[in-house]
Design goal:
By secondary structure, the protein is an alpha+beta fold. Helices cover 16% and strands 44% of the residues. The protein has helices at residues 2-25, 40-47, 59-66, 199-202, 226-231, 327-332, and strands spanning 76-85, 88-89, 95-97, 102-115, 120-139, 148-164, 168-179, 187-196, 210-218, 247-253, 256-259, 265-268, 271-276, 291-303, 312-324, 344-355.
């Protein structure tokens, strides 16, 4: 009996099911092709279709499948730079060589330990070395003519760079100055530098300000104690005949502008002042000045895009003017290559860099 009734009403039952399926599919009808939902079979197919594909013929799904995970940067990077200058002047104002051509190679290896989107967004470890050579000879001993050498210095370098809060970077760098001069012992130092990227605010005319703290850990990074060693105590040294390890602060900016229509030529105008502790340069020649050095410069750099080999090559050239406000620093040049008091100096330089 049940079988007879089922077969008798089967056509009506099938029609009712088809109507129900079509009703359930109605909300999607505006998003899909109306002709595709004309039959119960098409409606059922539509219900089995993922919602992300309805209304755009599957474009969203295709785009989702084509999204790639962001490529990770290299674990290591290498910077090689060779710079040529008309003289060797240290950032602390020591004129080591002022004749002939100075050649200064630099090699730095970077370990990209971490990159992310948190408060700390990058951690980079670095290590390498810096050398100074020259076509002219410099004396190995202060106030004496011989012996002489072309190779004046080697500086091992090690440190860490931490990017944080999107726009800040903290660099902590250890350096050691291994001098070729008999009267200057190897010195050890630590520099802590905080930089701020103001590009989001000033765009192409960003200043890129920074402040750094330089601390001598052992021995002097200048010739401040040479006078005591060579000529004995000075009546102007007061109660501090030996300068001892000391420190200074540096404040600077490095504004720049890149000319995209000139092959990405970049012009920079680095400027800085150095505020030194009263014993950093000693007191052999008299009292010290809180403002030890002020410096103005101009630098141009351009990528060498015609070099198709590995790495990113670039050329740079520039000049800087340094004024020595500290009396002891000014007179200390008698122990360096000038062998006379120097109030200020210019330096012209240029070089080639490659970054792998």
């Amino acid at each position: 009996m049940k079988s007879t009734l089922f077969h008798r009403y089967r056509p009506y039952l099938a029609a009712g099911i088809a109507t129900l399926v079509a009703a359930l599919a109605a909300p999607f009808a505006s998003a899909a092709d109306p002709s595709a939902l004309a039959s119960a079979r098409s409606a059922a197919d539509a219900l089995r279709t993922p919602i992300t594909r309805l209304g755009d013929d599957g474009k969203d799904m295709k785009e989702t499948k084509e999204i790639k995970a962001p490529e990770k940067g290299p674990l290591f990077n290498l910077l090689l730079n060779v710079e040529f200058a008309d003289k060797y002047v240290t950032p602390r104002g020591q004129i080591v060589r002022d004749r002939g051509l100075t050649i200064q190679p630099l090699a730095l290896l970077f370990l990209n330990a971490y990159k992310g989107d948190g408060f700390i967004n990058s951690v980079t470890l670095l290590g390498g070395g810096w050398w100074d050579f020259g076509t002219s000879l410099v004396s190995k001993r202060a106030a004496t003519a011989y012996p002489k050498t072309n190779w004046s210095e080697f500086d091992p370098i090690g440190g860490v760079s931490i990017g944080f809060a999107k726009r800040f970077k903290l660099d902590v760098t250890y350096t050691s100055f291994i001098e070729r001069y008999k009267d200057i012992e190897t010195s050890h130092h630590l520099e802590t530098k905080l930089s701020f990227d103001d590009s989001d605010f000033l765009k192409a005319f960003a200043l890129h300000p920074y402040v750094s703290y330089w601390q001598e850990l052992e021995n002097k990074s200048t010739a401040a104690d040479v006078g005591q060693a060579v000529f004995g105590p000075s009546s102007k040294s007061g109660s501090h005949p030996q300068p001892g390890s000391s420190f200074y602060f540096e404040i600077g900016v490095d504004p720049s502008y890149t000319f995209a229509n000139l092959g990405d030529l970049k012009l920079e105008a680095p400027c800085r002042i150095q505020l030194a502790d009263n014993r950093f340069y000693g007191n052999y020649f008299g009292g010290s000045s809180p403002l030890a050095i002020w410096e103005l410069g101009m630098k141009a750099s351009i990528p060498l895009k015609f070099i198709k080999g590995p790495g990113h090559w670039s050329f740079h050239a520039g000049f800087k003017y340094m004024n020595f406000e500290d009396v002891s620093l000014e007179n200390m040049q008698v122990f360096n290559d000038p062998e006379k008091t120097v109030r200020d100096t210019w330096q012209a330089y240029g070089g080639i860099s490659v970054f792998f």
